Amino acid sequence: DQKQREVLGNLAKRGKLLLLGPRATMGVINTAYGLVATPEPDVVLKRGHIAVVSQDGGLATVMLNWVSSHRVGISKFACVGEGMGIDVVDVLQYLARDKETRVICVYLEKIKDGRKLVESICEITKTKPVVVLYGGTEHEEIFRGALKQGKAFQVQNAREIFVIAEGLAKLSPMHGNRVAVITNVSGEGRLLIKFLSREGLAPAVLSPETVKKISNKYPSVNISGFVDLGIETKSDVYKYVLEQILSDKNVDGVIVINLLKSTILEPKDVKVLADAAKKSKDKPVLVLSPAHDDYLRVCEVLADTKLSVCGHPEEAALAMKFLNTRAKILEKNK
Fold first, then answer.
1. Which one, 133, 166, 176, 181, has the greatest CB density within 10 A?
2. What pLDDT score was predicted for residue 24?
3. What does R_g of the chain's alpha carbons equal in angstroms?
4. One domain, residues 208 and 261
5. Last residue of a domain, one of 140, 170, 200
């Protein structure tokens, strides 16, 4: 009741109590120590390098279930609720120093001290990416403008926040805007090219040497605005083509589309992409599995690799844009 809240609030203000919440909190998680202090004890989380902070318990539950079912690696999780004691800024400042955390995801809906919050995010983005999902409406345009100036990455829903965060945590920044697309289904390739253009990215134009190598070995491969391997492609073709494209100086990053349904590919076959990507650590390789069942299976297969997985072409294009933006931020901060 209100009296209890006042007592707790006073204790927190006097430094007698570390208070998380009290309302709408889902507790804390630290995967490095196996700590799961949350009402969702059955959620199995993979240890990783993405931290999650939420002001809302309901959305925090959605986030926990998403990362669990999609095998996204988490370092820390904290739901601050109304933030009567420990607030979002306190958690952000802790995560800024946390060696386990490479990317911070934040869901915000109420802002107590906007200046303090934005200043904290601005400072953190110099060393770590911060991905923000804002559910509030108060001074929204001003707040979003401040976040943009502070180099935070803003997303539109809980799905996007983890797709983007995983890309930032696993993949290298993209030092250029030229993206090569490899696919076994032409329709998804065309859609992806359209979304890349919307995000200010350009389809990579492969060098004549790369085109010759691929065409000589696999004459049926169609190379135009993207590389269409054909629906009957096997894993060895994917591997060879990806290796050749990654060695091309005209390419800054690669998105590989693999549709498993109605093709001869198996989920285990996509592991060859991880093997090929190891040979080029400075160019990000993103995997796009457009069929939902395929997406879940590919997430499972690639969970312990350095590859990130998307389920929609617009998400893949946005992830690449943010990887390019991250490279620009790091270059500016040198």
1. 166
2. 58
3. 22
4. yes
5. 170
196: Cβ contacts below 8 Å, ≥ 6 apart: 179, 181, 202, 203, 317, 320
71: left (phi over 0), alpha (psi -120 to 50) or beta: left
Cβ(270)–Cβ(182) below 8 Å: no
| One domain for residues 115 and 223 | no
What pLDDT score was predicted for residue 19?
59
pLDDT at position 47, please? 94
155/135 same-domain check: yes
Number of domains within the chain:
2
**Which SS3 state, helix, strand or coil, does residue 170 take?**
helix
DSSP string, 204-228: ----HHHHHHHHHH-TT-EESSSEE
Note whether 27 and 43 are same-domain residues.
yes
Containing structural domain, residue 97: 2-170
| Burial category of 216 from C-beta neighbours within 10 Å (exposed 0-12, middle 13-18, buried 19 and up) | exposed
Distance CA 216, CA 235 (A): 18
* Rounded average pLDDT per 10-residue block, the chain, 334 residues: 62 59 75 87 86 91 90 92 76 95 94 87 95 88 90 93 95 97 95 97 97 96 95 91 96 94 78 90 94 90 93 96 96 84
Phi/psi-derived region of residue 37, left when phi > 0, alpha when psi is between -120 and 50, beta in every other case: beta
Last residue of a domain, one of 120, 151, 170: 170
Tell me, yes or no, whether 277 and 160 share the same domain. Answer: no
Say whether both 158 and 182 belong to one domain.
Answer: no
CA 229 from centroid of its chain's CA atoms: 27
Question: What pTM does this model have?
Answer: 0.90
CATH code of 222's domain = 3.40.50.261
CB burial readout 171-208, b (16+ within 10 A) else e: bbbbbebbbbbbbbbbebbbbbbebbeebebebbebbe
E strand or H helix at 239: helix 235-246
